[in-house]
Amino acid sequence: MPEDITAAGASIAGSVLVTECDQSRTLSEICGCNLWLKFENLQFTSTFKERGALNRLLALSPEERRRGVIAMSAGNHAQGVAYHANRLGIPAAIVMPIGTPMVKIENTRRHGANTIISGKTLEEAGEFARTHGEAHGMIMIHPYDDPLIIAGQGTIALEMLRAAPQLDTLVVPIGGGGLISGMAVAAKSLKPDLQIVGVQAQLYPSMYNAIKGDRLPMRGDTLAEGIAVKVPGRITTEIIRHLVDDIVLVTEDQIERAVAMLIAIEKTVVEGAGATGLAAVLAAPERFAGRNVGLVLTGGNIDTRLIASVLTRELAREGRLTQIAIDIVDRPGQLAAVSALLAEAGANIIEVSHQRTFSDLPAKGTLLEVVIETRDRAHLDEVMKRLGEAGFVAWLPGRR
């Protein structure tokens, strides 16, 4: 199988970018290890999925190319298949589950594929794709449980170890398992002692359950929808069982923090699934302390509205953006007094609203809600202290 990955590298050369693999000095200092980032979010379709998709398409016979291909995907595999199928002149249909981010749907359509929205989950979309494909004589291009797909994804590890041969740990997101399977085969063939740690979203621990024999539930909407897979691959599960050293889970808060940190520090946009590797390192720095760690930023296809929400929520967590509720007497001059105090304390007012009707305050009182910007949590604590010293009853909503 290592030779299949080498062959895949030769096949896709020139059609898929050899993305940068750079050390991040700042993130290395924060995490307490030597951290390298593989920028697969900078591929033409903003996803590593191009690699496996192209490797699989190139293996089609002339007759199979004429019949066309079909794939099911939550977005990134769809774009990889659509883009390279269009480039190679192969008809393509893509089935995407309901709830797939609009940016991924539109990008897939832009690449010329017939895009079909069907199924509440990736598994339901896959069932529709199989039925539709059989009815129309199309070739199914599976997103992860296919040796050629796995081999294509494994080329990432070859490039990482070529760029940073000192790497001793790879932390890799897991959905269906195609990426980590290919990378594990490639990396272990070159450095058998290299540690490989898989990462899944806590809301969708399918491979974690399969490998560890657990029964953790799978539910809800995750920021890492690209790896929200309920049923992992059969081929990939066996590879992971033999070659991956451990699988860890990360929470939604940890994923959000990683997305925000990559934007703030690296100035690079990474979707939730692609940030799970950094989330895992940030969540357990003692595990990776002093090691040479490689992370794959697997994709950058995230809706701009969602980016705005993630960044705003991170500001709130850091104490830099806060909503304060203040109980004031309903008479002239009170708002001006609060505004003046906040200004003296160095806080910037972002939003102001009065609530006279829907509150439990006396009829002569009013609830003033103010969103303020502060330097950090210590500055916020100072602002709250000064409000109290001035005689105002102020609290953070939900913490009274």
UniProtKB/TrEMBL annotation:
Recorded hits in SUPFAM superfamilies, A to Z, give: ACT-like, Tryptophan synthase beta subunit-like PLP-dependent enzymes
Q: Which Pfam families match?
A: ACT, PALP
- Superkingdom is Bacteria
InterPro entries per record: ACT-like_dom_sf, ACT_dom, ACT_ThrD-II-like, Ser/Thr_Dehydratase, Thr_deHydtase_catblc, TrpB-like_PALP, TrpB-like_PALP_sf
| Catalytic activity entry | L-serine = pyruvate + NH4(+); L-threonine = 2-oxobutanoate + NH4(+)
Keyword S-adenosyl-L-methionine recorded: no
Question: GO BP, one example?
Answer: L-serine catabolic process
Question: Ranges for the ACT domain?
Answer: 323-400
Pathway listed for it?
Answer: Amino-acid degradation; L-threonine degradation via propanoate pathway; propanoate from L-threonine: step 1/4
Lyase found in the keyword field:
yes
Q: What is its EC number?
A: 4.3.1.17, 4.3.1.19
- What role does it play? Catalyzes the anaerobic formation of alpha-ketobutyrate and ammonia from threonine in a two-step reaction. The first step involved a dehydration of threonine and a production of enamine intermediates (aminocrotonate), which tautomerizes to its imine form (iminobutyrate). Both intermediates are unstable and short-lived. The second step is the nonenzymatic hydrolysis of the enamine/imine intermediates to form 2-ketobutyrate and free ammonia. In the low water environment of the cell, the second step is accelerated by RidA.
Concerning its family, UniProt says:
Belongs to the serine/threonine dehydratase family.
Q: Which NCBIfam families match?
A: ilvA_1Cterm, PRK07334.1
What subunit structure does UniProt give? In the native structure, TdcB is in a dimeric form, whereas in the TdcB-AMP complex, it exists in a tetrameric form (dimer of dimers).
The name this protein carries in UniProt is L-threonine dehydratase catabolic TdcB
Source organism (scientific name): Bradyrhizobium retamae
